[in-house]
Amino acid sequence: MRLLKIMLRVVSVLLLLLLVFGIWYAWRAFPIISGFGAKNMASGVFLQNRDPAAILKEELGFFPVSAGTYTINKEDSSVTGSVFGFAKRKAIYRSGTGCTLVNDFTETAIRQQHFYLSPAPVQNRDTISWPYGDQLADSTPAAIDQSLLRQAINNAMQATNKKGKPAYTRAFLVVYDGKIVGEQYAPGFNKNSVMLGWSMSKSLTAAVIGVLVKEGKLDPNAPAPVPEWKHTAKEKITLRQLLQQTSGLAFTEDYSSPSEATDMLFKRGDMGAFTATLPLKFQPGTIFNYSSGNANILSRIIRHTVGDADYAAFPYQALFHKINMYSVVLEPDASGTYIGSSYSYATARDFARFGLLYYYNGTWNGEQILPANWVKETVQPAAANQQQRYGYQFWLNGLDEKDPGKRWFPDAPADMFFADGFGGQNIFIIPSKKLVIVRLGVHTIDENKYLREVIRAVK
């Protein structure tokens, strides 16, 4: 009898601990699940004009996000997410700026924000030659084996993820020597469809920083102009260290469980300010630590440098429209600052134009948009980055993690660098092969394989 009582007490304690853990996990994870789902459903429905059922199946069909419920309100252009009725999060759509999660600021305050954006020029782009418009050349360069390229693109479009499930590749585009030589879209998508770049947004943010460096308003070697860092140990963090992901801030980039990354993206209204308050974990410049928080601090620095009156329009006027990227939508957080780490939308062709800007060493149509040495600096890894895989918010084809004698992508040249986003959003720039390759989809596929096959198609 006594043994039975002891066993019942142990079981009771274990059940209590399990209950406490469940409540703790739900308290931390449910708002992230509902926030992720609400935000992505809202952008899919109101910005991309897609079928909610397709979004539920493709973008939100994985656990634990699939446990969420998402209610669409077309009257106020919003989506509310919840998990078993708890942890409700609302994302609202505003024309021109996409969707924003309501966090820390009231919905009324967010809706009252004004974004003075520069409108794209009214023109028939199908009558203007690529890359300034969308009219493509009738002929293919002799250096391209069209049969091999078609096969490479077909293989990429049909590829599955590592688990053998559909990867939902939406677009695959190949530019050779400045000309589009291959392009394919999934059913329901075309050259006018805007698609989510995820962390390719970091590369866009770095380019805007580059514009401000060219204008003499920012200096990569100077301490980053973050107000909260004055008279603290963090005031020594330079702009270059933020660009190279060596700031030393205590930030964990983990999406499999609650972390600074998920808290920032789905629980915070001012993402740059949140990250700026995090403590130092390492001495600045000594450790490479990939962080979406660094990118949002950079985005906030852009806002502070330009000023609120001109901020919303600045990336468009100073960069995107100058290189004929007219489809781009940068989505802001609740404070009105663009989410420089994660939320940019554009067509595959516009992402390719961005890749061409870097392929052309920062020039476009005869104008030096970025500093003359910006691309050269972009592809230089920090000394702290032992695998030599990262530059100015761009990834590099550095060392293989398991075999430092090999490149990360062994079948691609050493000079390749690329913008990379969650789920395999990529802009690969390979100067030695005269290639820019864009792949957009939901899940990552074998990137080395499709790079090898596309490169093989270049004679």
UniProtKB/TrEMBL annotation:
<protein>
    <submittedName>
        <fullName>Serine hydrolase</fullName>
    </submittedName>
</protein>
<dbReference type="Pfam" id="PF00144">
    <property type="entry name" value="Beta-lactamase"/>
</dbReference>
<dbReference type="GO" id="GO:0016787">
    <property type="term" value="F:hydrolase activity"/>
</dbReference>
<feature type="domain" description="Beta-lactamase-related">
    <location>
        <begin position="171"/>
        <end position="440"/>
    </location>
</feature>
<keyword id="KW-0378">Hydrolase</keyword>
<dbReference type="InterPro" id="IPR012338">
    <property type="entry name" value="Beta-lactam/transpept-like"/>
</dbReference>
<dbReference type="InterPro" id="IPR050789">
    <property type="entry name" value="Diverse_Enzym_Activities"/>
</dbReference>
<dbReference type="InterPro" id="IPR001466">
    <property type="entry name" value="Beta-lactam-related"/>
</dbReference>
